[in-house]
Amino acid sequence: MNEIIPGTLYLVPTPIGNISDMTERAMHILQQADVVACEDTRHTGLLLHHLGVRSRLLSYHEHNKHEAGPRIIQLLEEGSTVALCSDAGMPVISDPGAELVRLAIDAGISVVPLPGPNAALTALIASGLDSRQFLFVGFLPKTNGKKERMLAEIKTLRVTLIFYEAPHRIKRTMRFLLDRLGNRPAVLARELTKKFETFQRGTLEELTKHLEMELPRGEYVILVAGTGEDTEADLPKDKGSWQEEAVTLAESHSVKEVSRLVAAKWDCSRREVYQFLLREGK
Ligand code: SAM
Hints:
The chain is an alpha/beta fold. It is 41% helix and 16% strand. The chain is globular and about 65 Å long. S-adenosylmethionine (SAM) is lined by residues 16-17, 86, 88-90, 93-95, 118-120, 164-166, 189-194, 219-221.
Protein backbone atom coordinates (compact mmCIF):
# COMPACT_ATOMS: atom_id res chain seq x y z
CA MET A 1 0.00 0.00 0.00
CA ASN A 2 1.40 3.41 -0.96
CA GLU A 3 2.37 5.80 1.80
CA ILE A 4 -0.02 8.67 2.19
CA ILE A 5 1.55 12.04 1.34
CA PRO A 6 0.76 14.97 3.67
CA GLY A 7 -0.78 18.04 2.04
CA THR A 8 -2.36 15.99 -0.77
CA LEU A 9 -5.94 16.02 -1.97
CA TYR A 10 -7.06 12.43 -2.59
CA LEU A 11 -10.19 11.83 -4.72
CA VAL A 12 -11.78 8.74 -3.25
CA PRO A 13 -14.64 6.86 -4.95
CA THR A 14 -17.16 5.07 -2.75
CA PRO A 15 -19.58 2.23 -3.68
CA ILE A 16 -22.69 2.94 -5.78
CA GLY A 17 -24.70 0.29 -3.97
CA ASN A 18 -22.49 -2.58 -2.92
CA ILE A 19 -20.24 -2.02 0.05
CA SER A 20 -17.85 -4.74 -1.14
CA ASP A 21 -16.86 -2.47 -4.02
CA MET A 22 -14.91 -0.30 -1.61
CA THR A 23 -11.28 -0.80 -2.59
CA GLU A 24 -8.56 -1.54 -0.08
CA ARG A 25 -6.68 1.55 -1.16
CA ALA A 26 -9.75 3.76 -0.76
CA MET A 27 -10.24 2.42 2.76
CA HIS A 28 -6.59 3.05 3.56
CA ILE A 29 -6.76 6.67 2.38
CA LEU A 30 -9.99 7.31 4.31
CA GLN A 31 -8.41 5.83 7.43
CA GLN A 32 -5.23 7.86 7.11
CA ALA A 33 -6.68 11.19 5.97
CA ASP A 34 -6.76 14.04 8.50
CA VAL A 35 -10.02 15.21 7.00
CA VAL A 36 -12.68 13.55 4.84
CA ALA A 37 -14.53 16.18 2.81
CA CYS A 38 -17.92 14.86 1.70
CA GLU A 39 -21.31 15.94 0.40
CA ASP A 40 -23.41 14.72 3.29
CA THR A 41 -21.56 14.11 6.55
CA ARG A 42 -24.36 11.89 7.88
CA HIS A 43 -24.37 9.69 4.78
CA THR A 44 -20.57 9.34 4.59
CA GLY A 45 -20.44 9.09 8.40
CA LEU A 46 -22.53 5.91 8.19
CA LEU A 47 -20.25 4.44 5.52
CA LEU A 48 -17.13 5.23 7.55
CA HIS A 49 -18.72 3.82 10.68
CA HIS A 50 -19.51 0.64 8.77
CA LEU A 51 -15.90 0.46 7.60
CA GLY A 52 -14.58 1.15 11.08
CA VAL A 53 -12.96 4.39 9.94
CA ARG A 54 -12.83 7.31 12.34
CA SER A 55 -11.73 10.41 10.43
CA ARG A 56 -12.82 13.99 10.84
CA LEU A 57 -15.65 14.83 8.44
CA LEU A 58 -16.07 18.17 6.78
CA SER A 59 -19.03 19.07 4.63
CA TYR A 60 -18.36 20.16 1.05
CA HIS A 61 -21.35 20.45 -1.25
CA GLU A 62 -22.95 22.53 -3.99
CA HIS A 63 -24.36 25.07 -1.54
CA ASN A 64 -21.33 25.70 0.70
CA LYS A 65 -18.48 25.11 -1.77
CA HIS A 66 -17.54 28.80 -1.96
CA GLU A 67 -16.76 28.92 1.76
CA ALA A 68 -15.76 25.29 2.31
CA GLY A 69 -13.42 25.16 -0.72
CA PRO A 70 -10.93 27.81 0.46
CA ARG A 71 -11.06 26.36 3.99
CA ILE A 72 -10.06 22.94 2.66
CA ILE A 73 -7.27 24.48 0.58
CA GLN A 74 -5.96 26.20 3.72
CA LEU A 75 -5.92 22.86 5.56
CA LEU A 76 -4.02 21.29 2.66
CA GLU A 77 -1.53 24.17 2.62
CA GLU A 78 -0.97 23.62 6.33
CA GLY A 79 -0.01 20.01 5.55
CA SER A 80 -3.27 18.18 6.25
CA THR A 81 -4.22 15.26 4.05
CA VAL A 82 -7.73 15.56 2.66
CA ALA A 83 -9.82 12.79 1.11
CA LEU A 84 -12.72 13.98 -1.01
CA CYS A 85 -15.67 11.70 -1.57
CA SER A 86 -19.26 12.18 -2.69
CA ASP A 87 -22.40 10.34 -1.64
CA ALA A 88 -21.69 7.51 -4.09
CA GLY A 89 -19.31 6.70 -6.91
CA MET A 90 -16.61 8.95 -8.24
CA PRO A 91 -16.42 12.38 -6.71
CA VAL A 92 -16.47 15.12 -9.41
CA ILE A 93 -18.52 12.98 -11.86
CA SER A 94 -21.98 14.62 -11.74
CA ASP A 95 -21.09 15.41 -8.16
CA PRO A 96 -19.43 18.31 -6.36
CA GLY A 97 -15.65 18.45 -6.33
CA ALA A 98 -14.60 19.86 -9.70
CA GLU A 99 -14.13 23.33 -8.23
CA LEU A 100 -12.11 22.00 -5.30
CA VAL A 101 -9.84 20.15 -7.72
CA ARG A 102 -9.32 23.36 -9.70
CA LEU A 103 -8.60 25.37 -6.52
CA ALA A 104 -6.07 22.73 -5.44
CA ILE A 105 -4.33 22.71 -8.83
CA ASP A 106 -4.17 26.53 -8.82
CA ALA A 107 -2.65 26.44 -5.33
CA GLY A 108 0.02 23.96 -6.46
CA ILE A 109 -1.39 21.17 -4.29
CA SER A 110 -1.02 17.63 -5.59
CA VAL A 111 -4.25 15.89 -6.48
CA VAL A 112 -4.27 12.08 -6.45
CA PRO A 113 -7.26 10.25 -7.98
CA LEU A 114 -8.20 6.72 -6.97
CA PRO A 115 -10.03 4.49 -9.46
CA GLY A 116 -13.28 2.92 -8.31
CA PRO A 117 -17.04 2.60 -8.72
CA ASN A 118 -18.85 4.73 -11.27
CA ALA A 119 -22.41 4.22 -12.49
CA ALA A 120 -21.85 5.30 -16.12
CA LEU A 121 -18.99 2.92 -16.89
CA THR A 122 -20.54 0.08 -14.92
CA ALA A 123 -23.70 0.45 -17.02
CA LEU A 124 -21.83 0.80 -20.30
CA ILE A 125 -19.76 -2.35 -20.06
CA ALA A 126 -22.80 -4.61 -19.67
CA SER A 127 -25.13 -2.64 -21.96
CA GLY A 128 -24.15 -4.41 -25.16
CA LEU A 129 -24.03 -1.03 -26.92
CA ASP A 130 -20.91 0.19 -28.67
CA SER A 131 -18.35 0.83 -25.96
CA ARG A 132 -15.44 1.79 -28.21
CA GLN A 133 -16.55 5.39 -28.20
CA PHE A 134 -19.14 7.01 -26.00
CA LEU A 135 -20.24 10.37 -24.68
CA PHE A 136 -21.01 10.79 -21.03
CA VAL A 137 -23.75 13.43 -20.96
CA GLY A 138 -24.71 12.99 -17.31
CA PHE A 139 -27.78 14.95 -16.19
CA LEU A 140 -29.47 16.98 -18.91
CA PRO A 141 -29.67 20.72 -18.23
CA LYS A 142 -32.82 21.79 -16.39
CA THR A 143 -33.93 24.65 -18.63
CA ASN A 144 -35.74 23.75 -21.85
CA GLY A 145 -33.59 25.96 -24.07
CA LYS A 146 -30.32 24.45 -22.87
CA LYS A 147 -31.79 20.95 -23.01
CA GLU A 148 -32.91 21.41 -26.62
CA ARG A 149 -29.53 22.83 -27.61
CA MET A 150 -27.69 19.94 -26.04
CA LEU A 151 -29.87 17.38 -27.80
CA ALA A 152 -29.45 19.19 -31.11
CA GLU A 153 -25.68 19.04 -30.62
CA ILE A 154 -25.48 15.34 -29.78
CA LYS A 155 -28.28 14.03 -31.96
CA THR A 156 -26.05 13.27 -34.92
CA LEU A 157 -23.17 11.68 -32.99
CA ARG A 158 -22.33 8.08 -33.82
CA VAL A 159 -21.18 7.26 -30.30
CA THR A 160 -23.16 5.72 -27.44
CA LEU A 161 -24.79 8.38 -25.26
CA ILE A 162 -24.90 7.97 -21.48
CA PHE A 163 -27.32 9.93 -19.30
CA TYR A 164 -27.97 10.10 -15.58
CA GLU A 165 -31.46 10.83 -14.31
CA ALA A 166 -33.31 10.93 -11.02
CA PRO A 167 -36.13 8.34 -10.69
CA HIS A 168 -38.90 10.95 -10.50
CA ARG A 169 -37.84 12.44 -13.85
CA ILE A 170 -36.97 9.24 -15.70
CA LYS A 171 -40.26 8.87 -17.62
CA ARG A 172 -40.27 12.47 -18.76
CA THR A 173 -36.62 12.27 -19.83
CA MET A 174 -37.16 9.01 -21.74
CA ARG A 175 -40.08 10.56 -23.63
CA PHE A 176 -37.96 13.61 -24.39
CA LEU A 177 -35.06 11.47 -25.66
CA LEU A 178 -37.42 9.40 -27.83
CA ASP A 179 -38.92 12.54 -29.27
CA ARG A 180 -35.62 14.27 -30.02
CA LEU A 181 -33.33 11.36 -30.90
CA GLY A 182 -35.81 9.08 -32.61
CA ASN A 183 -36.43 5.43 -31.87
CA ARG A 184 -32.97 3.98 -31.32
CA PRO A 185 -31.66 0.97 -29.44
CA ALA A 186 -31.31 1.85 -25.78
CA VAL A 187 -30.66 0.32 -22.39
CA LEU A 188 -31.96 1.18 -18.93
CA ALA A 189 -29.47 0.08 -16.28
CA ARG A 190 -31.20 0.09 -12.93
CA GLU A 191 -29.93 -0.35 -9.37
CA LEU A 192 -26.41 -1.23 -10.46
CA THR A 193 -24.42 -3.39 -8.06
CA LYS A 194 -27.52 -3.76 -5.83
CA LYS A 195 -29.82 -6.68 -5.16
CA PHE A 196 -32.35 -5.67 -7.82
CA GLU A 197 -29.89 -4.74 -10.55
CA THR A 198 -31.59 -4.99 -13.95
CA PHE A 199 -30.68 -4.23 -17.52
CA GLN A 200 -33.65 -3.54 -19.81
CA ARG A 201 -32.64 -3.62 -23.45
CA GLY A 202 -34.85 -2.54 -26.33
CA THR A 203 -35.65 0.60 -28.26
CA LEU A 204 -36.29 3.98 -26.69
CA GLU A 205 -39.95 3.55 -27.57
CA GLU A 206 -40.26 0.09 -25.99
CA LEU A 207 -38.43 1.12 -22.84
CA THR A 208 -40.47 4.32 -22.48
CA LYS A 209 -43.74 2.38 -22.87
CA HIS A 210 -42.55 -0.16 -20.35
CA LEU A 211 -41.61 2.55 -17.85
CA GLU A 212 -45.01 4.16 -18.26
CA MET A 213 -46.64 0.97 -17.04
CA GLU A 214 -44.56 0.69 -13.89
CA LEU A 215 -43.57 2.89 -10.99
CA PRO A 216 -39.92 3.78 -11.58
CA ARG A 217 -37.96 2.73 -8.54
CA GLY A 218 -34.31 3.06 -7.71
CA GLU A 219 -31.53 4.65 -9.67
CA TYR A 220 -31.15 4.54 -13.44
CA VAL A 221 -28.53 5.10 -16.08
CA ILE A 222 -29.93 5.62 -19.59
CA LEU A 223 -27.78 4.51 -22.53
CA VAL A 224 -28.74 5.29 -26.10
CA ALA A 225 -27.05 4.05 -29.28
CA GLY A 226 -25.46 6.69 -31.47
CA THR A 227 -26.64 7.16 -35.02
CA GLY A 228 -25.11 4.35 -37.00
CA GLU A 229 -25.74 2.28 -40.05
CA ASP A 230 -27.70 -0.27 -38.06
CA THR A 231 -29.77 2.24 -36.12
CA GLU A 232 -30.59 4.71 -38.85
CA ALA A 233 -33.23 2.39 -40.30
CA ASP A 234 -35.03 2.45 -36.97
CA LEU A 235 -35.29 6.19 -36.85
CA PRO A 236 -38.77 7.57 -37.47
CA LYS A 237 -39.20 10.20 -40.11
CA ASP A 238 -37.53 13.24 -38.71
CA LYS A 239 -39.67 16.20 -37.75
CA GLY A 240 -36.84 18.37 -38.99
CA SER A 241 -33.99 20.04 -37.22
CA TRP A 242 -32.13 23.30 -37.45
CA GLN A 243 -29.15 21.40 -38.86
CA GLU A 244 -31.19 20.15 -41.82
CA GLU A 245 -32.68 23.55 -42.43
CA ALA A 246 -29.23 25.14 -42.25
CA VAL A 247 -27.81 22.72 -44.80
CA THR A 248 -30.74 23.33 -47.18
CA LEU A 249 -30.55 27.09 -46.84
CA ALA A 250 -26.78 27.04 -47.33
CA GLU A 251 -27.41 25.93 -50.93
CA SER A 252 -28.66 29.40 -51.76
CA HIS A 253 -27.49 31.72 -48.94
CA SER A 254 -24.19 32.71 -47.36
CA VAL A 255 -23.11 30.96 -44.15
CA LYS A 256 -23.54 34.22 -42.24
CA GLU A 257 -27.05 34.73 -43.60
CA VAL A 258 -28.05 31.13 -42.83
CA SER A 259 -26.74 31.50 -39.27
CA ARG A 260 -28.91 34.57 -38.79
CA LEU A 261 -32.05 33.02 -40.30
CA VAL A 262 -31.78 29.67 -38.50
CA ALA A 263 -30.90 31.17 -35.09
CA ALA A 264 -33.92 33.47 -35.35
CA LYS A 265 -36.25 30.55 -36.01
CA TRP A 266 -34.82 27.72 -33.90
CA ASP A 267 -33.60 27.47 -30.35
CA CYS A 268 -29.92 27.74 -31.18
CA SER A 269 -27.26 30.45 -31.41
CA ARG A 270 -25.82 32.02 -34.58
CA ARG A 271 -22.37 30.84 -33.53
CA GLU A 272 -23.59 27.26 -33.20
CA VAL A 273 -25.10 27.33 -36.71
CA TYR A 274 -22.04 29.05 -38.14
CA GLN A 275 -19.65 26.48 -36.69
CA PHE A 276 -21.89 23.59 -37.72
CA LEU A 277 -21.90 24.82 -41.33
CA LEU A 278 -18.12 25.21 -41.34
CA ARG A 279 -17.79 21.63 -40.08
CA GLU A 280 -20.12 20.56 -42.89
CA GLY A 281 -17.76 22.23 -45.36
CA LYS A 282 -20.18 25.02 -46.37
N1 SAM B 1 -20.65 10.20 -8.84
C1 SAM B 1 -21.55 9.17 -9.25
C2 SAM B 1 -20.85 8.22 -10.22
O1 SAM B 1 -19.61 8.20 -10.27
O2 SAM B 1 -21.50 7.47 -10.93
C3 SAM B 1 -22.83 9.75 -9.84
C4 SAM B 1 -23.60 10.59 -8.90
S1 SAM B 1 -25.02 11.32 -9.60
C5 SAM B 1 -25.40 12.54 -8.38
C6 SAM B 1 -26.29 10.16 -9.30
C7 SAM B 1 -26.80 9.49 -10.57
O3 SAM B 1 -25.93 8.42 -10.94
C8 SAM B 1 -28.17 8.85 -10.38
O4 SAM B 1 -29.22 9.77 -10.60
C9 SAM B 1 -28.15 7.74 -11.43
O5 SAM B 1 -28.45 8.25 -12.71
C10 SAM B 1 -26.68 7.31 -11.39
N2 SAM B 1 -26.47 6.22 -10.43
C11 SAM B 1 -25.80 6.27 -9.27
N3 SAM B 1 -25.80 5.06 -8.66
C12 SAM B 1 -26.49 4.22 -9.47
C13 SAM B 1 -26.85 2.84 -9.41
N4 SAM B 1 -26.49 2.08 -8.39
N5 SAM B 1 -27.56 2.32 -10.43
C14 SAM B 1 -27.93 3.07 -11.49
N6 SAM B 1 -27.63 4.38 -11.59
C15 SAM B 1 -26.92 4.95 -10.60
